[in-house]
Specification:
With about 500 residues, the protein is mainly α. Helix content is about 80%, strand content about 0%. The chain folds into 3 domains: about 200 residues, Growth Hormone, Chain: A, CATH 1.20.1250.20; about 45 residues; about 230 residues, Up-down Bundle (Growth Hormone, Chain: A), CATH 1.20.1250. InterPro entries: MFS, MFS_dom, MFS_trans_sf.
Length: about 500
Amino acid sequence: MTATNQTNRAAGLGVLLAACVSALVVNANTSAVTILLPAISQDVGASVDTLQWAVTGYMLVGAAVIVTSGALGDVFGRRRIFLAGLVLFVLSCALIALSSAAGGVIAGRMIQGAAGSTILACGMSLLSVDSAGTGQMKAITLWGAASAIGGAAGPLIGGLLVDSTGWQGLFWIDAAIAAACVPLTYLTVKESRDPDRPREIDVLGTLLVAVALVPLVLALSESSSWGWLSFPTIACLALSVLGGVGFVYAERHATAPLVDLTLLRNRVLVGATLAIFLVAGMINALMYLLSLYFQNPDGFGMTALQAGLATLPAAAAMIAITPLITPLAVKIGPRYAVAIGFGLAAAGFATLMFVEPSWTYSAFVAPLIVLSIGLGLANGPASSASTAAVDQDQVGQASGISNMARYVGGSLAVAAAATVSTAVTDAHTTDGASAAESLSAGLGAGAVLLTLMSAAGIFLVLLLRRHRPEPATAVHLAAAAAATSHTIPTRPSGERTGQ
């Protein structure tokens, strides 16, 4: 092997290591935070309802930034923007760990949302331009595996660290790993950019996404205390509508729009995006509700570590079904795979509707496994269909739409589930029910919402009926990886690179 080949091989391994390690850390951090909420609540003296914004705020900022960060990488250099994401992630971890008030934690998490979405978007793009063909498929598969492992292990790691080092330990360790990725990236990754992409960045579109989403989530989160017909709620909803209308207008007139609205005429893409929206929402809302129920003294009273361990059957089921999803979708068609997936999810959530204080943890295991398999089965084909349904030169825009749908679905579903659960819990408490009965009723109400979302997903097959699975490509493998993370590449093949 020549010196040049050895150098190229080392550089390729450096790109792969930097992208995969950072994806693992970001996804582990994302899934671990809900386990940490009770401990953070006790430490900073804020309610869990307030700290819900540490979850929804992260996703809201991620939704606004993920497409923009990919565009910034295309224009100004993917390595440069990826490094900026890593540095911002380190700083956000430090801010959160050093915070003694809820405001600092929430602000840090919102900054972390921008950093995490930047790392995921540009990390995948670095892999997609560094290799081609079989090598690209292997790299994307490894990236997807790292993302899945991080997402699955996050609650367990978070619980272990809460019990051993305090909740701050997760963020200090994440900061150290991300910091180590900085010199690795700088020394081994070549700069790359897209010379054909317009240099304009749709800043206005990014801001209008936030204007549309933040008031909507605020209205959902506070409606139980404000009242649905109160002035603050109506004002937030009106501002959200104005932001949405403004976004549509801005995108129609932008030179390089954040979202190509003409793609929304593609009914397969719309159906796949809605499925992704629902699945991401249900996964995040479920983790939020279960984490609080499992650790509440009137629920199971688990420690953070025990709550993390309690999520393993669901995570293991979702990972186990992953290798079977593509063969099944090819055999029976993605529309039927998605329908079966949502049907299984509905069955699992419907069982949780009848939760009682007398239930033990073992009563949760079977429905959690069933609904996890269902969500995995629905998400995989939908992620693939979102890119397979468009022309090759539209893959970047289609992926941007589905990426935003993941973040938006997660933020809205967590806010809605928290509002419904809290309102029902408070109502039962007011009516004289015991704390345990009220808590179970709240979880059951949240399960009703998630059951309805699953049932709505079944009807999405009407939009997917014309889609036919195609032979796997690197882009489609990336879409499968997106089922466990938040992004797929903005460009499917190599472009100009340089030091």
